[in-house]
């Protein structure tokens, strides 16, 4: 069939989206390096880690239309796997006496550790997905939540392997911004490559018209499973990098709080687009930072103007509600793309196929 | 043995009331209301005077019980209706995901509003202290509260089912849950029905907050969260939109938690919740539409 040239043209037509998004991230990183302040550096690292997480979430949620409350579970798996792989053997003896001896003796640098952690999470996503992807709609959402709760319960109680609810300290901390930038850009390109692949297209078809997709011979559980596994791996990678950015992990770091923050960023940004996933993180994170800054106090002439404590979160919630009420499909219901006259494709078709806002959840 | 039964029933009552509160709203507007847990917390804190001290300054809580209970129910209902008017009315045509996140954002606002007024430390309160005295029934000792919880839940469920089945408003609500557009065309006033559902759901949240407050003796801004999650799960495995299913699944979940606590070997007990959630996944695999699937939620082609 004429499959090959066609795929190539889809890639060419849509590659401007990941390129523009990467450029945004690179610019943010360059500003950070030029500015050179440590708290700002840490803030930016947090943003990049969240970009990885929300992009990972988008790979499954955005393309399948099935809201998942469970992906942070894979982040938890990835973060602990990174701890197992990269901590010095002596610290491991203290925190994880129950690990097998070969794993205790092993100490990898953070890069390979993070990749392995991603693969580890991806394997678990494949196993869980085999069971869960037969469900759809709200039943699937609840089942993913049940999965998250299971992972959390196990990690919070398996003393010898996860140190239970105690904080695991001693994970090597990485303070330069570049690995996080590379991770975020890699996540963006993985998401893009999946979205234009045969599986990604089939999955979005199944999201928008399940009956028609089924009638056209799309194996919905299978295409969902592909996305679930891939997004689980990206979430695991994000979890590993998150562990290296803060240096401490506890099971409750990876529970409901992070689940809702990442989901909110995705939905506010635009659940159905990669642009929405990335820009949702960037904009909401900047908003949170701005409000925190106001809360600490800003000198206005003689006096300082400061928001009372707690108002920051309230304002954040209000802003989210207002955005969603005004734009129910998120801030970016369309992908960033170069204008047609710049030659990023052939005229009218430069609107990527994934511009359709998400349908049912 | 009897003790286990009563434990299961009283925990199940709590979950059933919560699940009902979520199912009522889901039925009329397909909204999974994550703010429900925060309405529960708010209802308890309405009894206290705002302060950040550890010891609660009881304010409205000094009322005698026959005023106190209606007061809390009214607070829950009021907040719930207010949230409909201020927030959810703007989301009538939004996708379920958007509504869900909006309700989460609203819950966030309510929680941090409470945090601003009361700080995040749990406060000890004595709500209806007479209820914590133990009573003896058929050889099992249990707090009077447990008995009252079970009885009150049964009464409330009975009253609600009469209300939903026998009154005009209940009929309108059931019609709206089944086919909202059709119901409106036949003269059901949308805003009234939706506000009614929110009021009922809020009053149920108030009832939960009385039970929780009396049971634990503390007021905590997080207190609604755990109940709401279980209630949410119960709503789904009961069959979203089906009120009977929500109640049934709530009691089943309560029973599953309590029974696993006693049956599991001691070394597996910390992992109890993992078993409960595993059971939830199993139920969903075999009955993705829920135990009792509501009409009108199935996809039509």
Rounded Rg of chain B: 19 Å
Low-confidence stretches of chain B: none
The separation of the N and C termini of chain A measures 34 Å
Distance between the termini of chain B: 50 Å
Overview of this structure, please?
- The complex is a heterodimer of chains A (361) and B (301).
- Chain A is mainly alpha-helical and 361 residues long.
- Chain A has one domain (3-355): ABC transporter involved in vitamin B12 uptake, BtuC.
- Helix content of chain A is 70%, strand content 3%.
- Chain A has helices spanning 3-14, 16-35, 38-64, 71-86, 89-95, 101-105, 110-132, 137-157, 159-162, 178-196, 198-208, 210-215, 220-246, 256-269, 274-296, 311-326; strands spanning 168-169, 248-249, 298-300, 303-305.
- Chain A has a two-stranded antiparallel sheet with strand order 1-2.
- Chain B is mainly alpha-helical.
- Chain B has one domain.
- Chain B is 67% helix and 4% strand.
- Chain B contains eleven helices and four strands.
- In chain B, the strands form two sheets. A two-stranded antiparallel ribbon of chain B has the order 1-4. Chain B has a two-stranded antiparallel sheet with strand order 2-3.
- In chain B, a hairpin with a 2-residue loop joins strand 2 (134-137) and strand 3 (140-143).
- The chains are: A mainly alpha (361), B mainly alpha (301).
- Chains A and B meet through helix 8, helix 14 and helix 16 of A and helix 4, helix 9 and helix 11 of B.
Quick structural summary:
The complex is a heterodimer of chains A (361) and B (301). Chain A is 70% helix and 3% strand.
Walk me through the topology.
The complex is a heterodimer of chains A (about 350) and B (about 300).
Chain A: H1 3-14, H2 16-35, H3 38-64, H4 71-86, H5 89-95, H6 101-105, H7 110-132, H8 137-157, H9 159-162, E1 168-169, H10 178-196, H11 198-208, H12 210-215, H13 220-246, E2 248-249, H14 256-269, H15 274-296, E3 298-300, E4 303-305, H16 311-326
Antiparallel strand pairs in A: 1-2, 3-4
Helix pairs in contact in A: 2-3, 2-10, 3-10, 3-13, 3-14, 3-15, 4-7, 4-8, 4-13, 7-13, 10-11, 10-13, 11-13, 14-15, 15-16
Chain B: H1 2-29, H2 36-45, H3 65-86, H4 96-118, E1 123-124, E2 134-137, E3 140-143, H5 144-166, H6 168-178, H7 180-185, H8 190-216, E4 218-219, H9 223-238, H10 243-263, H11 272-286
Helix pairs in contact in B: 1-5, 1-6, 1-8, 1-9, 1-10, 2-3, 2-4, 2-8, 2-9, 3-8, 5-6, 6-8, 9-10, 10-11
């Amino acid at each position: 069939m004429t499959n090959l040239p066609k795929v190539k043209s889809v890639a060419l037509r849509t590659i401007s989206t990941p390129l523009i998004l990467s450029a945004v991230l690179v610019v943010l990183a360059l500003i950070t390096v030029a500015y050179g302040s440590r708290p700002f550096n840490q803030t930016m690292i947090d943003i990049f880690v969240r970009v990885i997480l929300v992009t990972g979430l988008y790979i499954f949620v955005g393309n399948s239309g099935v809201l998942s409350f469970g992906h942070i579970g894979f982040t938890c798996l990835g973060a602990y796997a990174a701890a197992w792989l990269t901590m010095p053997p002596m610290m491991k003896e203290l925190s994880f006496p129950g690990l097998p001896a070969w794993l205790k003796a092993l100490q990898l640098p953070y890069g390979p550790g993070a990749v392995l952690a991603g693969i580890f999470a991806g394997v678990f996503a494949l196993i869980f997905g085999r069971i869960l992807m037969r469900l759809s709609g709200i039943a699937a959402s609840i089942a993913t939540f049940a999965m998250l709760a299971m992972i959390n319960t196990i990690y919070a109680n398996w003393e010898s392997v996860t140190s239970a609810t105690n904080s695991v300290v001693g994970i090597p901390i990485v303070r330069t911004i570049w690995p996080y930038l590379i991770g975020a850009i890699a996540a963006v390109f993985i998401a893009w490559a999946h979205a234009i692949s045969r599986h990604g297209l089939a999955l979005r078809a199944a999201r928008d018209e399940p009956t028609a997709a089924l009638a056209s011979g799309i194996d919905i559980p299978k295409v969902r499973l592909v996305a679930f596994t891939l997004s689980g791996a990206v979430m695991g990678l994000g979890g590993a990098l998150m562990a290296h950015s803060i240096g401490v992990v506890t099971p409750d770091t990876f529970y409901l709080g992070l689940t809702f923050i990442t989901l909110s960023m995705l939905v506010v940004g635009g659940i159905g687009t990669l642009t929405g996933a990335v820009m949702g993180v960037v904009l909401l994170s900047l908003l949170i930072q701005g409000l925190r800054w106001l809360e600490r106090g800003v000198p206005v002439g003689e006096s300082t103007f400061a928001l009372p404590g707690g108002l920051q979160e309230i304002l954040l919630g209000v802003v989210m509600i207002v955005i969603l009420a005004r734009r129910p499909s998120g801030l970016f219901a369309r992908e960033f793309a170069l204008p047609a006259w710049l030659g990023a494709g052939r005229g009218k078709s430069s609107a990527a196929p994934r511009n359709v806002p998400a349908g049912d959840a | 043995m009897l003790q286990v039964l009563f434990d299961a029933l009283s925990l199940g009552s709590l979950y059933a009331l919560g699940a009902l509160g979520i199912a009522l709203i889901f039925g009329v507007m397909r909204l999974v209301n994550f703010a429900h847990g925060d309405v529960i917390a708010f209802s308890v804190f309405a009894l206290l005077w705002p302060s950040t001290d550890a010891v609660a300054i009881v304010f409205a809580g000094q009322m005698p019980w026959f005023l106190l209970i209606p007061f809390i129910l009214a607070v829950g209902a009021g907040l719930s209706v207010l949230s409909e008017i201020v927030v959810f009315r703007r989301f009538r045509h939004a996708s379920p995901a958007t509504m869900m996140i909006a309700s989460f954002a609203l819950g966030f606002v309510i929680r941090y509003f409470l945090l601003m007024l009361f700080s995040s430390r749990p406060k000890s309160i004595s709500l209806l202290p007479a209820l914590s005295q133990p009573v003896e029934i058929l050889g099992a000792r249990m707090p009077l509260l447990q008995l009252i919880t079970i009885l009150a839940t049964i009464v409330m469920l009975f009253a609600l089912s009469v209300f939903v089945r026998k009154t005009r408003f209940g009929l309108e609500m059931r019609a709206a849950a089944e086919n909202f557009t059709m119901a409106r065309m036949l003269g059901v006033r949308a805003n009234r029905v939706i506000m009614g559902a929110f009021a009922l759901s809020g009053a149920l949240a108030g009832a939960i907050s009385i039970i929780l407050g009396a049971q634990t003796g503390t007021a905590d801004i997080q207190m609604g969260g755990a109940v709401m999650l279980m209630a949410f799960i119960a709503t789904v495995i009961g069959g979203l939109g089906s009120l009977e299913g929500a109640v049934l699944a709530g009691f089943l979940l309560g029973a599953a938690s309590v029974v696993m606590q006693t049956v599991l070997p001691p070394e597996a007990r910390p992992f109890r919740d993992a078993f409960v959630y595993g059971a939830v996944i199993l139920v969903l695999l075999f009955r993705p539409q829920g135990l009792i699937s509501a009409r009108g939620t199935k996809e039509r082609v």
